[in-house]
Description:
The chain is α/β, with parallel strands linked by helices. It has ten helices and twelve strands. An eight-stranded mixed sheet has the order 3-4-8-5-9-10-11-12, with helices on both faces. Strands 1-2 form a two-stranded parallel ribbon.
Amino acid sequence: MDQERTRQTARALAVSGFVSTVLAACGIAQHNADTFTAAGVLSGSRIDRTECPDDMSHVWVEVDNRGECLRYFSAGLDEANPVVHVWFHGDRMGQSEEGEAWISKSYEEHANRETLQGFADRALSDYGLPYIRFSRPGVYGSSGEHKTRRRPRESAIINAALDQLKERYQVGRFSLTGQSGGGHVVAALLPKRTDIDCAVMTSGVLSVRERARAHGWKTDITGYWDYWDPMDHIDLIVRDPKRRIFIVGDPLDRNTPLETQLSYLDAVSKADHSITFLRAKGKGRSHHSLNLVGFQVAKWCLDGLSATEMQSRLPYPASKG
């Protein structure tokens, strides 16, 4: 009898686990999940308008008849701001081609309100620019589903949120920086906006198709085929003599190979936009992390430094052997 109960329990758990996996794969987000937690990022979070705080750290946007409550952390904003620096973080979910997803163990060490506000305060102190640290959909307190990043809805949501922030803080122009998947966000916003002074993409996912090919993936690592590829929308970028675009990369980057970034640079340059490549040394074993370098380039851009002067301040050590 005990063995039969054990078998029944095992079957029930297996079915339960299968159903949970299917629901996650289908993108059925948990209601009001806490995306400051790894579990909340994995499940995704949906929320009602009445549950989105009406304060100066959240914005509610609706895209495709569905709303999202987006979180941000700011420092140095006045009632009116001629230029505001907005930073978009990289992807926070690892995925396999088989559909398995995971969150790094370090996520929750930084995913708390005090730490993230501290990051914003330090960015203001170090670079002297009014600053917004934007939480992409499904992470760091924002509702949504991070597993569906790079699909058209993500950049549409963020673009709508920037419109609201522009009105809320009377922003004249934006300086946008993004690391890796955040660089993809910046590239996706360029065809949608005409109020960007500086666009800085560090280790950016700028050609989704070429990156997948370089890694031998069938499609983007998210598993979706309907991704927004910045390479396909360059003709929609409006010419703007005030705007400067920078790609900052490490030739040794193993996450987002440099050639995939330079393909975007070549295409944007041929479309007669001001775009520059800067070489820098990425942190970590994959030579991928260039977060703070992007902040510095954005400051230099707004200060009017030439690309030559910027590169001289970003020495890249010669390879050994």
